[in-house]
Each structure stands twice: as C-alpha cells, then as structure tokens.
User: Fold these one by one.
Assistant:
Number 1:
Amino acid sequence: MSPKRAISPFALRGTVFTASNAHQLHCIENALVCVDENGVITAVLHQDDTGYSQACQHYQLQGQLTVLEPGQYVLPGFVDLHVHAPQWPQTGKALDLPLNEWLQDNTFPLEARYADIDFARQVYLSLVDTLLANGTTTAMYFATLHDRSSLELARICLEKGQRALVGRVAMDNPDQCPDYYRDESATAAIEATARFIDDVYQLPGNTLRRVRPVITPRFIPSCTDELLTGLGALARRSGCHVQTHCSESDWEHQYVQQRHHKNDTQALNDFGLITRKTVLAHANFLNDEDMDTLKAAGAGVAHCPLSNFYFSNAVFPLRKALERHLHVGLGSDLSGGHSPSMFDSCRHAITASNALHDGVDPAIQAASRGNGSAKIDFRQAFWLATGGGGEALDLPIGQIKTGYAFDALMLDCRATEGNVVIWPELDSSPDILQKIIYNAARSNIIRTWVQGELVFSR
Amino acid sequence: MSPKRAISPFALRGTVFTASNAHQLHCIENALVCVDENGVITAVLHQDDTGYSQACQHYQLQGQLTVLEPGQYVLPGFVDLHVHAPQWPQTGKALDLPLNEWLQDNTFPLEARYADIDFARQVYLSLVDTLLANGTTTAMYFATLHDRSSLELARICLEKGQRALVGRVAMDNPDQCPDYYRDESATAAIEATARFIDDVYQLPGNTLRRVRPVITPRFIPSCTDELLTGLGALARRSGCHVQTHCSESDWEHQYVQQRHHKNDTQALNDFGLITRKTVLAHANFLNDEDMDTLKAAGAGVAHCPLSNFYFSNAVFPLRKALERHLHVGLGSDLSGGHSPSMFDSCRHAITASNALHDGVDPAIQAASRGNGSAKIDFRQAFWLATGGGGEALDLPIGQIKTGYAFDALMLDCRATEGNVVIWPELDSSPDILQKIIYNAARSNIIRTWVQGELVFSR
C-alpha cells in the first residue's frame, strides 16, 4: 500500500470529549466537527451555535456527514511520547527481572537483532498496527542503532498513516554498551543521525512531514561527551526534535552526578540538547532548578507511570510539574511499561499520583507517609494523553479544536467486548469520560483517524 | 432460563497454566484435562504420562474431546473475593472524590436504590454477565441491606451459573449510617441475616451449593456491638462464610482503635467473626499479632490493590502475609476499584508491591524510600487470583487439578481485539503466561466454565 493522503472534507456529529489544558475539560454533546481536505479541523460547532443546522444540512446533502450512534464518542487521538519500538516482542515479559538482567540479558540482545531487516519489518508492522488499533495516532519512537531498520520503521508508519517521530538511537560509550550493540564511534553515530534525518524527510509521500526524525542519544550513560556534543550541535543546526532518557532511576541519576557533577537536565542542557522540541523520558528525579531549565526552554517530559513502578524506584512528581506549567505528556515506555494502550498509561498516571500523595507503607505514620500534594484525576490524565502530548511536541494535535489536525478516535461503549458500562439516567458526560478512561479497551475503539485519514476501523 | 447443572463428561487438550501455591507455577503443554459429569476434574495428564494416548482416543471416539488451537490456553477461572454488587453502576466514576463524598453523596444513595427490585435485577444481570465474560467464575459479593434484592442477586448468579458467595449487608449503627440506609435494629439485622441464609440454601436448583450465603457486617464502624456479637454467634451456629472490611484506611483503623482500644482483627475475633471461612477485605494495617490471629484461625484476606491506591492511604503488605502463609486472594473491590477484570487486579497487585518495595517519592533518599521487602511478580499474582482465592474460601476451586471443580476459562491470544502478542520463537511458556497476565483483556476470553458447565462463550 502506498501512502494515500488525499481525503474529502467531512463532518461528524455527536458527543466530543477534548481538553484544552490540564484543568479545562470540554464535553460537547451533539457537536459538529468539520474537517477539510487537508485533514484540518475547520470548525467545532455546538448545537446552539449560529449556523449549526445549516452546516449539518450542508454536509448531509454532500453525503459527508457521519452521525454518531448513542454510546459512541469522539476523542482526540492519543499521543504516546515514549515507545521503544524494537522492544515490542518482549512487551509484558521479563518484568520479573532486575534492571540489569532486563537490559543486558534481554533488551540489548533483542535490540541487536534489528540488524535483520526482515525481523524488523515483521515487528514494526505488528507494533504500528497495534498502536493504531489502540488509538495512538502519534508515537515518538526509539528505534535501534541500525540505519536501515530504523528507516524501515519510519516508512511503515508512513505506509500505515500513523503520525510518528522516529529516532535512530545513538550510543557509543564502550563502558556502558555491549560490544555487539554499540556505535563504532561518536563521529559515526553523528553522521548516521544526520543521514537518518535527511532520509526520513525524503521518504516518498512524506511531504506533509507525517513522519519526523528525532535526534536520539539513548541516555547519558550510553554516550560519550563527544557524541552528546555533536548531537547537540546537530539539534541546533537541524531544528529537529530531540529525545533521550533523563533521571530515570537512582542508578542513572547517580551515574550522571558522578560523571558530570550535576543533574541530567543540566548536563543535557550544557550539551545543547534541551530545546523546545526536546522530550525527556521519565525525569523522575528533577529538582527545582531542573524544572526551571525545562520551563525556560519549553522542553517536554514524557511521564511513563507504568514503568515508574518497575524500573524507576520512584514516581515522577507530575502535579508539581503541572503547577509549574511544564509541558508534560504520557509515554507507554514499551516495553519497560507493559501496555500499548494509553488508557493504561492514564490509569497508572492516576494511581502513581495517588501513591505519591498518600504514600504506600502502612508501617509509616499517616502524617509522614505521603507528600500530600500529588493527586491528579482523570481530567489531567486525559489531557496528558492527548493535548499535553501535542503541546510537548509543539504540534497542533491532541485537541478537537479549530486549526488542529483531525487526529481522533471513535469509541463505541456498547461493544460487548468492553467493560465500560454506562447508565444513561445516572451518568453525566464527565462521568462517561471518567468511565472511559478507567475501563475502555482496544475493543471499544472502532475508528482511528490521522490528519483526517481513516487509518484503522473495525 | 432455569439452572441446568447436568453435563456430559468431556476433555480438553492443550496448554494449561495453573499454580499450586504462590511459588509453584505449572505450564503444562499439551495437557489432557478430563472432567466428569459432576464437573469435577478427574485427571490432568501430561503427554508423556502412561495412558495419555488412550485417554485422548477414548474422549475423541465419544465426541467429547476439544483440542485447543495454537494461541489458545486454559487457565483456572478467577476468584474475586470482594465485589460490591450494587456499586456496579458507578464503576469507574466518582474516583476523583474524597472518601466521605464518595460514600455519603454517591455510594450510600446508590445502594439505597436497591429497595427497587427492578433496578436491582437490571444491575445484577449486567454485573454477573460482565464478570463471567471477564473469566470470574467465583465472586464473593456484598449486596445491600435489602432482603429481596440481595436474594435476587443470589438467584441471578444461580441462573447464570456463576459460583457465588452472597452477603445481605448488616449495618445498624445510627452514628455512622444514614437514616435512609440502615437496619432498624441489631435484632432485625441478625434475624434478616439468618433468614437470608435459609433462603439462599433453599433457592430452587441450589442443591450443589453453587451459591452460598455470607454473614456480612459492613464493617465495625457501621455496626453496633450488639449486631457484631449476634452475627458472631450466627457464624458459629451456621458454619457460614463471613466477610467484612478490616483496617482499610487510616480513618477506619483509628475509629476502631478509639472504640475498642484494639485493632480491627482483634475486635472481630472477640466478636467471633474470625473463622476458617472468614474473608477480610483490605486488611492493610494488620500488625504481627493480627497476622498471627488470622493464621491461627485460617481466615483469609481479600487483597484489593486497585482500591488500595484510591481509598486506603496505603498498600497491603502482601509479601509479608504470604511469607507467614496467610490465606490471601484478590478482590476487585468494585466500585472502590475501577475494573471488573481480575487481570487488572493482578497487574495492580504487582505495581502495588513494587511501590511498597521501592517507595515512590523521589524526594526521599533511596535507602529509606521503600521497605525493600515487598516485591512480587506475575507468578504470585496469578496464584492469588486463582488458587489463592479458592484456598481463602476453603473450596476446591482455582486450580486445574484432580479433584477440583472445573472452573476455568479459555483464552485466545490470536484475538485481533487483544494486546497479547506472542512470538513463538522468543517466548517460553512462562513468558506467555506473563504476557497474558499483563495484557489479556476480556476480548481474549472465549469460554468460561463453572463446575464443568459452559457459562459464557463467544
């Protein structure tokens, strides 16, 4: 299948859920969402708006109106800010192992297999299909250090229609990377990254930049100073997005302290890697100065609540970051996180915030058990998974809003496969969204669009 | 539909996952599971066992053999030890509210509606259908204080074929229960409970005790001493199961301390409510003495990890309880927990244990952040959701094992609706179970049996 980007204008009428920030949730019943031939939302009309009836009639006469049935809802597509694409085959396994065994005995050997382009192709097709079926319209991917299979991931996203930001991973530090899975030098990694950027932009059919390249130093421990310096310069020159891991765990945080005598964020900033288009995965051990640095640059954080519980030894101080108006979205962190569904990321963002707020150890007195200022609810989780991710990427996505790309999903909560049970006489619109966030599954998602293009349906 | 309990003998051939305790997981490839006309497992043959081929041939000749296809697996049915049936309509909502608003403004008014038998019937049919579709073959239910609708829940479980333990809730304390939703006196509540026990045993078709009554004081704060004393005497007289909440939250734990100058467990024990057939929901703030008391009585704990994160202010010290050989299973705690799926309970049991182990607050130094001795993995979670629940109830369920009831589910991991992605060349049998625990959904469950009877299929 070659990329087909041309669409006809259309409109959807039904209940829309969208958030314009962490505290402003909009539940618009009987909304009319109008999408033009570029896949851009040209209007979101409320039923008492002037022109609503005429617009409905216009689209209906053109055969371009879809009216949602009761129990169906439109939401912005999900933005997953942190996916390790090559780890897809080990999703949901090896989570019983300590980090070192997980990485050295499982993850690195698996990633090394992507020298085999056929294996890469098989995995990446499965992953992109799965994410679209789960309503993830935009994903920010770590691929591997293999040029060809990384580009193949970008090509597959383009073929399937997913909006994607893809990074060819750079990692050259012999002290921390195995011999069999390491860039041969800083220069080689920088040159390969520069080539990858050009190659992605030049992919046939990528004129609208549906797929973008990302400068991707794995994390400070995997990279020499020379590599980090070179990638920082490349970020400045190219204006590309940047992604890396930051202050993920006690070990990693301490490693950077010992090597650079400062926190990850400050070290990355010194290397020129903190920009408006940077997304830092995890960022659990940020201090106030680090948050100020990110705020000043407009850089984003990919909060990965699921993997926080497995590999981070701590939970990202999300509410504090939101109160300081940092750009934050959610990441599934496949396969450090076990689920490809952003619904699971939402749920775990809430449980993680509650754990940080109340604490968890009953042996500790209540007054000193939690930090008492960390709770979020479904509204913030929903924002993070949609508009928050779009804001972190500096792209007009993640909201059902005029001028934004129509990246969206349609849910059917009547699906017999699903556990969302709505009682019309008891549930308000926000109640319904809360029920969706807590219990919707892949089986409830019946259509997924990217830039107005239908990329999944069932 | 009237209960149909008669079945023909049959056998299933395929991969079986079952656990015989928290540390012994059995992955039996190409097993032959034989079930007699009473729904009891008469043999679980391995493919190199003497008689395996003959047995396969025998069942095949009789037309009684089902051979699983690749990607299909048999697991014991799930045992959900803590479900508030009347709260089903608010599942997945109101979780953004503080406990007091959740209880007084939402939960009590909702439970009071079950005076309306038609409403009760509508809700309970939906709930039991949903749980069977999610593979919950046994549920231990709190109903409400309404005699008729509580009995209707028992009747619906029997009609649908679910194994169930149902409690008519007793709550008479005017200081803690609202006027509109309270037993009129201790005597009235005790008499109603005694009548309910008789009524459940006498339900038409309940000769095999598929459905059992449970003595159910809501929790100490809701009950006067007179009521608790009377229900303790009734437990001794009747030999019935007992369920109540125990040391769930700081507030409740402190309330009991102030009223009885001892922990919940000791107070309940003094009232005669701690028996081999008692299941205590939550039990987060148990001390060593409490664990000794439960161990001595053989009483069980319903660990409800999901609601731990919302309403408990702490996480149950599960690993400690397992190391002391307490009987522990899992509870969804609908609707304090948001999911009817025991897969979600398994996942959250693991994340909760990791949170307790590592701690969660990055502002605290690593050495003092967690308790360092709480981690469990998918093996323990699987045991708790199946055999652990059966053991807590003192019933021969939750294992695929000779002499046990064939309460089981069949999963299909090829289902396009599911996120379990298996790579045959990379995944061992335990890997596959781990992937199932982490990513299986309702849509992967294609058949559910209780006592050999097919109660759900798709």
Number 2:
Amino acid sequence: MATLVAIKSSPLEDAEALQKAFKDAEALHKAFKGWGTDEKSVITILGHRSVYQRQQIRKTYEEKYQEDLLKRLESEISGDFERAVYRWMLEPADRDAVLAHVAIKDGSKGYNVIIEIVSVLSPEEVLAVRRAYHNRYKHSLEEDVAAHTTGHLRQLLVGLVSSFRYGGDEINPKLAKTEADILHESIKEKKGNYEEAIRILTTRSKTQLLATFNRYKDDHGTSITKKLLDNASDDFHKALHTAIRCISDHKKYYEKVLRSALKRIGTDEDGLTRVVVTRAEKDLKDIKEVYYKRNSVHLEDAIAKEISGDYKKFILTLLGK
Amino acid sequence: MATLVAIKSSPLEDAEALQKAFKDAEALHKAFKGWGTDEKSVITILGHRSVYQRQQIRKTYEEKYQEDLLKRLESEISGDFERAVYRWMLEPADRDAVLAHVAIKDGSKGYNVIIEIVSVLSPEEVLAVRRAYHNRYKHSLEEDVAAHTTGHLRQLLVGLVSSFRYGGDEINPKLAKTEADILHESIKEKKGNYEEAIRILTTRSKTQLLATFNRYKDDHGTSITKKLLDNASDDFHKALHTAIRCISDHKKYYEKVLRSALKRIGTDEDGLTRVVVTRAEKDLKDIKEVYYKRNSVHLEDAIAKEISGDYKKFILTLLGK
C-alpha cells in the first residue's frame, strides 16, 4: 500500500477523524452485505471524503475486516464506475503512477497522459509519482517510457519524465528571446534542430518557459501551439504540442480533454474519469468555468447527457453536483 | 545555508553536542584572532568532527559571532588548504552541487566529476544533490549540463543526471543478456547505435546493470570497460567508460582517480581533495585498501610525498593518520 498523506492535526481532531473513518468503514461494509451492492451508499460516502479521509477509511477498513477495501470494491462494482472509484481511492502520486503505467502500455495513444502528468504537476509532485512508480512496478518510470519509444519522441518523453525543473520565479528575458528563436527555427522546418527544442522544453523552469512562449508570440506573430498544430501530424509533434499546452495553461488543456472526451461517438470514459478524479480536489472548479466559457454549456449538463447509471452519479458527485 | 542533516538523538545527547559545538566555535574564533591563523587548531578541530558536528559548529559560530564561519575561513586560510577545508565544511549534497557546478564550467575535463557524482551516489542522494543545486544556482543541474553540451554526450550526461533509478535488487537475467548484446553491438562499431546504449546505461537499475556487465564479460570474453578503453578517444566514449566504471566498482574507480592525481607532474590537488573529502565518512578505508593492493604503497605515504604544509596535514588527518 502506498504511503499515507501526512497532515498535522491536534489529538482531538485525530480522534474525531478516526471515529468518522470507523463509521464510514462500517457503513461500507454494510453496503457490501448480501446480494448486490448498495451503490448509493458507496457514492455518498466516498464521493464526499477528502484524500486524507479516504486513506484513513482504507486503513481502518483493513484493520477492522482484514480485507483490502479496494479489492472488495473491485468485486462489488464494475465497469466505468469501478474504475472511477478505484482511481479516486488511490493516494494521488500512486494514482498517477498507475495512470502512467497504463498509458505506457497503451503506446501511441497514451503519450498525452504521460506528458500531462509530468508537465502539469509541480517538480516535487513529479518526484512523488516517480517514487510511487518504483514502489509499484520495481522499475523507474523513465526506464519503462524509454524501453517503449525511440528517437526524438523518446528523447522528449524521457526528458519530460526525468526532469526535476527549478521551481523558482526568476526569469531571464534575454534567454527567453534566444530560445523563442530556437524553438521557431526548430518548428518551422520539418527537419529542424529538434535536439535544442527538446533541451529547452525538458530542462527550463516553467516560469522561464512561459516567458519564452510569450516572447515567441510577440516576435513571430502567432502562438507556438498554433504554429505546432500546423505540423502536428506525427507522434513527436503531437507530443511537443501537448507538452507546451500543459505547461502554458493546463486548465485550458483539461477543458479540451473533457470536450474531446464528450464529443466522441461513444464517450471517452477514461479521459473523463482521469480529469475529474485527478483535478476534483485541485482546480476542477476553474476547469468547469473554462468549459462553460468555451461551450456555453455547464460541464455537469454536458456530462449528464453522455453517461449514465452509478458512474454518472459518482462523477457528478465529484463535480460537486 | 543548506539544510542541516537531521539525526535523532536524546535531549541529553543534544545538550552535550551543543556544548561541544559551542566550545569548538570558541576555539576556532580564538584560532583566528590576532596576526596569522592558528592552522593547527583548525585542522585538529574540524578534521575530527562528523558531518553533523560540523554543521552544528557552523550554526553555533554564526549565532555567537554573527559571522559565517565559511566566509571567515576563506579569509583566514588559502590555496589548496582553504579549498579542502571549505569543501569539508559543506553539507554533502550541497558540496556535490558545488563540485558539479565547477565541473560544468570546466567543460570537457569536468565531465568525469559530474558522472562520478550522479553514478556513485544512491538515487535518493542524487535527488538531494539536485535539490541543493536548485537552492544554490536557481537552475536545475540537468538544465546547466544540457546547455553546455551537445549530441550523444549531452544525451548521456543529461540522462545520467536526471535518472531516478529503481533502487531494488531484482534482476531480469534475460534482459541482462539482450542488453549485454546491444551494448556489445553499440561499442563494436564506431558508428554504433548509441541511442540504445545510452537508454540502457541511464535508466536501468544499478543491480540490473551489474548483471548486464557480467553477462557481457561471459558472452564476449572481455569486460565492457576494457572494450571501451580501446575506443575511448573522444569525450563521449570517455564519458561512457567513466559511467560504467562508477556503476560497476566505484572503489576501484576512486583508487584510479587518486593514482592519476598523484602520478601527474604537479599533483592534481582538486581530484585528491575531492576523493578524500567526499569519501572520508563513507568508504575511504576500503579505497585505501584497494590502493595498497594495487600499488604496494600506503595511500598516506604516497600522498605525504606529493603535497605539503597545512594542506598535507589536513588531508592526512581526514585519512585517519
């Protein structure tokens, strides 16, 4: 089991939290009893607990019933609902390790998930995911990414995964200008100097990269993401595009993921679940606003039309409906 | 100032340690007084204190005299002696960050120092160095390495620096065979498939790599380091060679660094200081044994012949003479 999230609290708060977890574990156990599962209780309880509370419920449940709550959930519920609840129950770094592992196996269509995880999270959060990946898979994340890719794509993905970017706010404007030009040259020609573009995108701090992207727009009359879209025909260019979008404005990026997931014939439940579960306790509220501004439809309403059953109830609960 | 090393201890031990640090700070302050410095006291005190004690002395000195002990030392002593004491006084991860930074500026002749740091330390220790580098230089280590190199050499160095290798003991023997063959093909031809060799060396766990190097020897009749020596004419091949030696047997590697440092006309004091200071509290005793076995001369005697003055006294103190 992954390390629990440690939060400082008073002894009284600890006792109360423990009692609550105990009650939740009991209620869940009751929901599993007999034929069928009381899915409503599962959604009501787990959908309204914080990451810390969920870890405590899992621990308490295991101590009380000598059974892993996650394993029990897997046998009680199924399909997209199961997958969403399972992911929701994992500690965040551990969840991202699982998502990255699945994405590596998915090959070409999983690259965006890997890029998203390591480009949106803070440098210290990425390290936590890499540590969780060690614990689960007895390999390093970069090791598995590298073994499944080649050429420039490998260089870019492994660089993004392995980078421990400086997290400070310092900007070097001269460097932003030089490197905006390098990126421009690199993207312009199809056989450009990708080595340098990869170096810049995988090693510079996010603040410095934002300055570089702004400078690009000022000097070259269009945003670097628009320019890249013209060329985004292969996996490498698509990966470049995704990385830049995740670094420049990850809320806008997530809005697009949701929009595409819902627009598809046969909704992309994995994409939908991923964004809702991973951002619910972070900035899902902002992403909902971006979605509304872009589509003039509330995200909840758009989702409600596309999915159904317990999965729908659970996702809408996480959306705060 | 860098983070202090935290060691658990009882309140009584804490009080005693603090009192000792206080006395040491006073004695050092006295050693700096008047014309000239009492170098003997500096050597006797600092040369016999653990990493934790040195950090405590530095803190106590600053509180008591409103002055950074390191700055004061810089103004009191000079030359190789100063450099050795300064490095000895830094917290290990911070010291390696400084060594790496100097090495990057040194260009081609500094590559081995960078490779040595990130290949000998444990994965978690490498992260600590990368964090210390952020704190000091407001850049990431891989960012500065990448900006100063190109091509395959960049790929190898950045890969070694950025990797967070899995630290477990699992070995996949089949993989060891496949990758021993890939390494063999890659080194054999001058224009080999370096991409794959770089992938293997920068991402696999050290235990797995040892199995691969052993398999190489079994299947190809010679050690991979010997084979590489035949080709080690350019910076890239030299870097490959250094990385493999640091991963296979770092004590043997350090013995060679010391041997070369002493053999040179005009001793390489930086190399000598680096090995003695960084390994003194780790495995310098073993390295001394390896040195004796290889040269039939005690390391202390070899060093005593080549250097002199306070620098010599200090280095011999760290060697336990």
